């Protein structure tokens, strides 16, 4: 199912076509494809090149690992994520490795790495849905995450399915139009609250 973003301004096709579905086909993901996803994440920018992200991947064909991570999800997410080709726990190193001081940008930088993974997934014809609805401490135990790392999100990745495979409530959400806050509420020129002007239709 395709659901391109109704962008107000031109953006790259991969960004426009990326979205967060819940309908997946219960098919595994090839190991080489998973390697490409994490290679994309590996090359994300980070504060002081600290690279605070670490990922724990649970492919669906590793049933014990997959089920263990699946059980850390909120029940509302387990309803559909059980069909994903892989589940991925993203973790953030909370302190700078070189100095031991707290890294206030660690979660931000994990988001950058995960964003690159999502775009790479889209380029490979896969779908992905990032979830905050999980038990972080349960995930820490399930994936043996060491001290000094925060569990941040769990992402379901896989081959897109059909909305008809979802329960009624989720199917309605799957088919609903995509929405974002208006552009003028997000981008200011020079000072807060001063909207950036629209780009002219053509140069003078």
What does this structure look like?
- The protein has 204 residues and is an alpha+beta fold.
- The protein has a single domain, classed as NADH Oxidase.
- It is 32% helix and 17% strand.
- It contains 7 helices and 5 strands, in the order αβαβααβαβαβα.
- Strands 1, 2, 3, 4 and 5 form a 5-stranded antiparallel β-sheet that branches.
- Helix 2 (31-42) crosses helix 5 (106-123).
- It is globular, with a radius of gyration of 19 Å.
CATH topology: NADH Oxidase
The overall pLDDT, averaged over residues, is: 95
Unreliable runs: 199-204
Q: Bin the strand percentage.
A: 15-25%
| Rg (C-alpha, Å) | 19 Å
Structural category = alpha+beta
Outline type:
globular
Helix residue percentage:
25-40%
CATH top level label: Alpha Beta
Encode the helix/strand succession as letters: HEHEHHEHEHEH
| Architecture per CATH nomenclature, i.e. the level-2 architecture | 3-Layer(aba) Sandwich
CATH superfamily: NADH Oxidase
Tell me about the biggest sheet?
Answer: 5 strands, antiparallel
What is the tally of beta strands?
A: 5
- Count of individual domains: 1
Enumerate how many helices there are, as a single number.
Answer: 7
Termini separation: 41 Å
């Amino acid at each position: 199912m395709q659901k391109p973003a109704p962008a107000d301004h031109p953006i790259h096709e991969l960004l426009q076509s990326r979205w967060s579905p819940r309908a997946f086909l219960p098919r595994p993901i090839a190991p080489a494809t998973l390697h490409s996803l994490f290679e994309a994440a590996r090359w994300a920018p980070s504060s002081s090149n600290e690279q605070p992200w670490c990922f724990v991947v649970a492919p669906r064909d590793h049933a014990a690992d997959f089920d263990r991570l699946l059980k850390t999800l909120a029940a509302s997410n387990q309803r559909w994520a059980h069909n994903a080709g892989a589940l991925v726990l993203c973790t953030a190193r909370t302190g700078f490795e070189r100095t031991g001081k707290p890294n206030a940008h660690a979660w931000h930088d994990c988001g950058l790495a995960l964003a690159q993974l999502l775009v790479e997934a889209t380029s490979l014809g896969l779908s992905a849905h990032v979830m905050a609805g999980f038990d972080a401490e349960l995930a820490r135990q399930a994936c043996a995450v060491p001290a000094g790392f925060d569990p941040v999100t769990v992402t379901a990745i896989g081959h897109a399915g059909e909305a008809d495979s979802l329960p009624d409530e989720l199917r309605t959400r799957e088919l609903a139009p995509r929405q974002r806050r208006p552009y003028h509420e997000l981008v200011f020129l020079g000072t807060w609250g001063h909207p950036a002007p629209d780009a002219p239709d053509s140069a003078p």
